[in-house]
Amino acid sequence: MKIAVDAMGGDHAPQEIIKGVEQARDLYPDIEFDLYGTQEQVAPLIENHERLQLIATTETIEMGEEPVKAIRTKKDSSIVRAATAVKNGDADAFFSAGNTGAVLAAGLFIVGRIKGIDRPGLTSVLPVANPTTSQQNFVYLDTGANAESKEKNLVQFAYLGKFYAQKVLKVKEPRIALLNNGAEEDKGDRMHKAVWQLLHDDPALKFVGNVEATELLVGKADVVVTDGWSGNAALKATEGTAKMMLSLIKHGILNGGLRAKLGYLLLKPVFSQIGEVMGTSNYGGAVLLGLKAPVVKTHGSSKADAVKNTISQIHEMLTTKVIDETVTHFGVVDQPKDVDNSSQNG
Amino acid sequence: MKIAVDAMGGDHAPQEIIKGVEQARDLYPDIEFDLYGTQEQVAPLIENHERLQLIATTETIEMGEEPVKAIRTKKDSSIVRAATAVKNGDADAFFSAGNTGAVLAAGLFIVGRIKGIDRPGLTSVLPVANPTTSQQNFVYLDTGANAESKEKNLVQFAYLGKFYAQKVLKVKEPRIALLNNGAEEDKGDRMHKAVWQLLHDDPALKFVGNVEATELLVGKADVVVTDGWSGNAALKATEGTAKMMLSLIKHGILNGGLRAKLGYLLLKPVFSQIGEVMGTSNYGGAVLLGLKAPVVKTHGSSKADAVKNTISQIHEMLTTKVIDETVTHFGVVDQPKDVDNSSQNG
């Protein structure tokens, strides 16, 4: 398998990207890497060229650029070139820590959607922060690829999440829930009520009902399906609250004198464990599911370790052929009832 | 001033409701209370009848009941009777810890909207959890009274929040922000982009732009305006994450042996302070703003202390005449440009 890597994207690119890629290369003998980036910046940083080649590009898409315009005009950028390699079959997956919008646009317009998927969903694996369960994580989509969604999009997200949970997280029969504004079945606006019904009536989905954002991290399901708008708000509020609480604790310790500092030292293992549960770098990158190949975006702040973990995730996606499962389902098997085939290529 | 109290609503009703009301009565010599509840349950619990009378009712709306149906059929329930007293001018405000939907429905259909307000917004005062600022709290609406909102609703929420921040939180010129899926001005779906423009163009509002849910508790604004759908998701995710993190810490301490327990004892003041910042009972109840009188719903789990704090909040609303300010603005002053007057009574 070959992974096309955007070596230029991310706060610590290209150093940390290359470092992480080399670590992953040493870990997985079955992966080859094509690194897309400028000759002068990338070449000197490569330590070992085994199963790793630089493909020189001349342009870079910066973090602040308007995504669609950027991928249309910067044809020789690392993002566009890497995505094009996947499209042409020269690579099997695309990895980037760069401009999220540009990565999503390159995925959507260059790599392309699976037939039968109207809108891909940006997918994260999130931690279950519940000490009373052994469940460690769950699949959450759409985290914000689509600001506006329709019923059929959410049903497709349920299938995309199901296959991902089965193949990558090894959950035999994933429990699927819908993020809604109440737990009861009659909750939600018209759209969410309709989605509840569609998911509930689908015999191929193990639908366990609505889940509220208060219970997102409790581990009530293996896949939580949401529209990109509220999914984005809930995920960001989760991240923000975790961050603010840690900062309150830190501030309290720093201003609590010797007593608090001693308390911190004694509780350090507890805090480390929580940091590990809540930390982003252990959960890989965000996958734009619904495309013809794995397109995975990791945090802009990623260092080598997070890059390596995200490559592991891509390795698992390719090994388990999760995309093939999706293609087969949407291409051959019965489609969700409400898929409007006429708009597939719209 | 007289407050109509639903003595029957809440997990600890009527005991804790009455206890909290009596505490507030002893604190504020200018408040009289009418307690609506059943003779046999409420009468024996009243310790002192000074400025406090029981108005006997025969029905109770339970937590699980369908709200609109309940207020239509249970005419002699504490919720319907208390709301009706406000409508008839027999009381100045309505307080309940009961069935949220029924309280909102009673507010909307019995107490009634202010002329010019299309949809009231459920409003919470939330903590700023940022140790680097002196700002302690901010106004957040709509937390979920409306599952579907239009542009004009959000502009009205901005005004409702502004008056509340000015009068109740004593912020002279409240900074107003819009909860959106990105900080930049071009972010959001069509609706949020349009709201951004309306708020930005309004010279009467000190609009400071978009705020993302990651920064909700950072204190970037005094009023955060949101549609009820994403506002609900972000608020619930915030509550859920805070709760899960505390439970992870607790679990870590309980399972960390003597060392962790000692560490906890030393850090106890830090945890108490965080508990105080993040705790719900210090911030009063949720106010359905946009109605002709204060209609305030406090957590179902409220004990006497939370009841007393919520009465303080109502006292402040009545003393500062925040509702009058709203009535004057929407009745006499220029209305936000996009208010569709024809639908006011719709």
Q: What features would you describe in this structure?
A:
- The structure is a homodimer of 346-residue chains.
- Chain A is globular.
- Chain A is of the alpha/beta class and 346 residues long.
- Chain A has helices at residues 15-27, 39-42, 67-73, 78-87, 100-111, 151-167, 190-201, 228-254, 257-278, 304-319, 322-331, and strands at residues 2-6, 32-37, 52-56, 93-96, 121-127, 137-141, 175-179, 206-211, 223-225, 286-289, 295-297.
- Chain A starts with a strand and ends in a 15-residue tail after the last helix.
- In chain A, helix 4 (78-87) packs parallel to helix 5 (100-111).
- Chain A has two domains: 1-117 and 290-346, Isopropylmalate Dehydrogenase (3-Layer(aba) Sandwich); 118-285, Isopropylmalate Dehydrogenase, CATH 3.40.718.
- Mean pLDDT of chain A is 91; it is low at 339-346.
- Chain A has eleven helices and eleven strands.
- The longest helix of chain A has 27 residues, at 228-254.
- An eleven-stranded mixed sheet of chain A has the order 3-2-1-4-11-10-5-6-9-7-8, sandwiched between helices.
- Chains A and B meet through helix 8 and helix 9 of A and helix 8 and helix 9 of B.
Q: Topology, please?
A:
Two copies of one chain form a homodimer.
Chain A: E1 2-6, H1 15-27, E2 32-37, H2 39-42, E3 52-56, H3 67-73, H4 78-87, E4 93-96, H5 100-111, E5 121-127, E6 137-141, H6 151-167, E7 175-179, H7 190-201, E8 206-211, E9 223-225, H8 228-254, H9 257-278, E10 286-289, E11 295-297, H10 304-319, H11 322-331
Parallel strand pairs in A: 1-2, 1-4, 2-3, 4-11, 6-9, 7-8, 7-9
Antiparallel strand pairs in A: 5-6, 5-10, 10-11
Pathway (chains A, B): Lipid metabolism; phospholipid metabolism
Subunit structure (chains A, B): Homodimer. Probably interacts with PlsY.
GO biological process, one term (chains A, B): fatty acid biosynthetic process
